[in-house]
Design goal:
Elements lengths: L2 H18 L6 H7 L8 H23 L1 H7 L1 H14 L14 H7 L13 H18 L21 E3 L3 E6 L3 H9 L12 E8 L2 E7 L1 H13 L2 H12 L3 H19 L2 E3 L6
Antiparallel strand pairs: 1-5, 2-3, 3-4
Organism: Paraburkholderia terricola
Protein name: Putative DNA-binding domain-containing protein
């Protein structure tokens, strides 16, 4: 690497630090790095970029985590966002990835992280789950999907059905999907009590949907995802749950097969190449 490239890399690192942690940059270094403006000092010129940069990234996080913003309130969310941006600055050419590490950062930096699980604050668990759901939902907006190709109908053979590519199986400690959609509908829900929740998030025809499912359905779909063999998954979930195989087949055929196919849970194996 050339000396000029080393200097450029060093300057770029310094600049990102100056933008995300303005208090850590001294005026002398700024004056030695930038020229002043006609009416502003070098520090004042940089301060304009510092404020606009943080405000732009904070706004981006508000858009990616609207229910978390609602739950925390504007002031507290801004505090969380600023701390997150200092610890996890943007590392991608697209701001779509800005919130990628936010749920994990919330969990890792919770103030009660050293306490036994039974002594931890429940509202923090809720916030981690809510941010996780919002991130799961957001990342599917641009994930590889099945748009432009045929979807199966109820005449499809069970052995050919596999989960579609733009689908996530999720589980949380709180009903965060309900909370999120209440917020998006313009209502002001109370923080819910702890209740294990399971859901399927998918995108079909460029629209993202969330479907609540039972724990057993979640386990069954997880088997289908792992094995890519729906008939074998029926037998496996029957053995795991202690039901007869015939009973599980009846449940599949008469309760969930049609609505799941029509919702876009599945594509046919031949359509996606085996």
């Amino acid at each position: 690497m050339s000396v000029d490239q080393d200097r450029l890399d060093s300057l770029q690192r310094w600049m990102i630090e100056a933008l995300i942690a303005p208090d850590g940059v001294d005026a002398d270094t700024i004056a030695a790095t930038f020229l002043p403006g006609p009416k502003l000092s070098a520090s004042a010129c940089l301060a304009i970029y510092q404020r606009s940069y943080i405000l732009r990234l904070r706004k981006c996080l508000e858009e990616q985590f609207p229910a978390s913003y609602h739950a925390l309130g504007a002031t507290l969310f801004a505090d969380f966002a600023d701390e997150y941006l200092r610890a996890c600055p943007s590392d991608s050419y697209t701001l779509h990835e800005l919130g990628r590490r936010f749920p994990e950062w919330l969990e890792d930096n919770r103030p009660d992280r050293d306490q036994p699980p039974e002594q931890r604050e429940s509202w923090i668990d809720f916030m981690v789950d809510l941010a996780s759901y919002e991130r799961d939902l957001y990342r599917l907006f641009d994930a590889q999907g099945h748009e432009g190709r045929p979807w199966p109908d109820v005449s499809a053979d069970d052995g050919a059905l596999v989960l579609q590519p733009c689908l996530a199986l999720v589980a949380y400690r709180y009903p965060v999907a309900w909370y999120y959609h209440e917020v998006r509908a313009g209502r002001s829900p109370q923080l819910p009590v702890a209740m294990r929740s399971y859901a399927v998030i998918l995108r079909r025809d460029f629209l993202t949907h969330t479907y609540p499912v039972t724990r057993l359905h979640h386990e069954f779909l997880s088997l289908v995802k792992r094995t890519r063999d729906l008939p074998a998954s029926v037998e496996a979930i029957a053995a795991e749950a202690g039901y007869s195989v015939d009973a599980v087949w009846r449940s599949w055929r008469h309760e969930v097969r049609r609505p799941w196919i029509e919702a876009g849970f599945f594509v046919e194996r031949a359509v996606i190449g085996g």
